[in-house]
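Appendix B, record 7
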Amino acid sequence: MAQLDYKEQAAEALQLTAPDLKKQGIIDEIVPEPLGGAHRDHQRAAEILKASVLNELKHLSKLKVDKLIEKRIEKFSRMGEYSG
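Structure tokens (predicted):
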């Protein structure tokens, strides 16, 4: 197994990776990067992000405002809970 560098070790130990944050409910979606990374293809990265945001807005626009607020309060209330 390849050795992780310090920042990767820290992210793993602190559970700060994208999959960890999604599992914890802190983020809603992991937006993929274009091949080679977003820094190599800004245009494609922007297109992917735009599609993701528009898709989420389409979904959220179907919900009533009071339901959106309720879901947001629930989400932020769960942050910081320990379920070890």
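Remarks on this record: The radius of gyration is 16 Å. Residues 32 and 48 are 7 Å apart (CA to CA).
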